[in-house]
Design brief:
binds pyridoxal-5'-phosphate; four-stranded mixed β-sheet; 371 residues; Aspartate Aminotransferase, domain 1; globular; Aspartate Aminotransferase, domain 2
Length: 371
């Protein structure tokens, strides 16, 4: 049996007629850059996230960059964030000349350890940028208290967390600006690059709308030095076809997660692997199902690959240890939980169309490995 980490074939084939019709509408109307499909999608996304505004852009990476630009983050600024995330979480900060100030992660959730944040705040702190890793929200209600106490805005890296909730509030609606990605492996994936930002603040929405088109409201008049970062009409059209299915897909991921949880427990494997920790009062959308394997993680990955089971490591190197960030002066040992996670985590297949037999096979092979 083959179990890929992610296979979009079934999803795309099922929706193929609707997707072709939607692409045809863009072709017929020449709405290639932003345009009517993107404008309609932005309304639907704002509704979905429970925010006043949603603003499309070219990628999740750009969403983060634009959000920080909206707060004028620059050379003398600091942004507090996690070292255990995708590269763009931090490159968005350094790209603006600002300094990422890392806070270690909670070993259970892999999200920011909020008890360590206040000690890192200085008068140069321009934003706090939590990541909702794997599809589970960081502790946003607690972060909100810190944000209000110090008057520092929150920027959510919600790239992996569209539809995730804490206390019934959706990702993107718990901060000044939420940042999302339509990279094909996310729960709502496009057919190319894309992203968007959410906000309830009219002034920020106004600025983000301009920043994504060279900082301009009126063509050839530039209020800010923005980016060329627009969502294209084809992506908008495809994403509008997919959005109505998003909740069913996220529920299917959650059902797959529950199945793994029961099966690994029944197989008596909870000593060898730690299952994902689900906090109370959250909706976890399981963009990834990540187990912790304290012993022999790389051997297990290799064994599963030999048995045609796809897995991946998110992420094998903490960001403070990346070669390009050496100049920041962090060193190995600075963020022990992040470093340990990079040696112990392993993502298993969890996509919505995964079959029960495939999951049983994954569990059986992991049991065989440890037997
Ligand atoms: C995917 C991702 C991004 C970047 O999104 P792109 O659309 O690929 O630029 C940023 N942060 C996190 C946590 C991600 O998972």
């Amino acid at each position: 049996m083959k179990v890929p980490l992610l296979d979009l074939t079934e999803q795309n084939q099922t929706l193929r007629p609707e997707i072709e019709a939607a692409l045809g509408r863009v072709l017929d109307t020449n709405g290639f850059i932003l345009g009517a499909e993107v404008a309609a999608l932005e309304k639907e996304l704002a509704d979905y996230c429970g925010t006043k505004h949603a603003i499309g852009c070219a990628s999740g990476t750009d969403a983060l960059l634009l959000a920080l630009m909206a707060f004028d983050v620059g050379a003398d600024g600091e942004v507090i964030t996690t070292p255990y995330s995708f590269f763009a979480t931090v490159s968005s900060i350094t790209r603006l000349g600002a300094k990422p100030v890392f806070v270690d992660i909670d070993p259970q959730t892999y999200n920011l350890d909020i008890s360590q944040i206040e000690a890192k705040i200085t008068e140069r702190t321009k934003a706090i940028q939590p990541v909702h890793l794997y599809g589970q929200c960081a502790e946003m209600s607690e972060l909100r208290k810190i944000s209000e106490k110090y008057g520092i805005p929150l920027v959510e890296d919600a790239a992996q967390a569209i539809g995730a909730e804490e206390f019934g509030i959706r990702a993107g609606a718990m901060s000044e600006i939420g940042c999302f990605s339509f990279y094909p492996s996310k729960n709502l994936g496009g057919m190319g690059d894309g992203g968007f930002m959410t906000t309830d603040d009219d002034a920020l929405a106004h600025k983000l709308n301009a920043l994504r088109v060279h900082g301009s409201f009126e063509r050839y008049y530039h209020k800010w030095i923005g980016l060329n970062s627009r969502l294209d009409g084809f992506q908008g059209a495809v994403l509008r076809v997919k959005l109505p299915f998003l909740d069913a897909w996220s529920e299917a991921r959650k059902a797959n997660a529950d199945f793994y949880r029961a099966a690994f427990t029944d197989a008596g494997l909870t000593e060898q692997i730690a299952l994902p920790f689900e906090r109370e009062n959250v909706r976890h959308i399981y963009n990834q199902f990540v187990i912790r394997v304290p012993e022999r993680r790389d051997e297990l990955k290799q064994f599963l690959a030999e048995n045609e089971i796809g897995t991946d490591i998110y992420y094998p190197v903490s960001l403070h240890q990346q070669e390009c960030f050496e100049y920041l002066g962090y060193k190995t040992g600075d963020f022990p939980e992040s470093e340990r996670a990079s040696k112990e985590t392993l993502a298993l297949p969890i996509f919505p169309e995964l079959k029960r037999e495939q999951q049983e096979y994954v569990v059986a092979k992991i049991a065989e490995f440890f037997a």
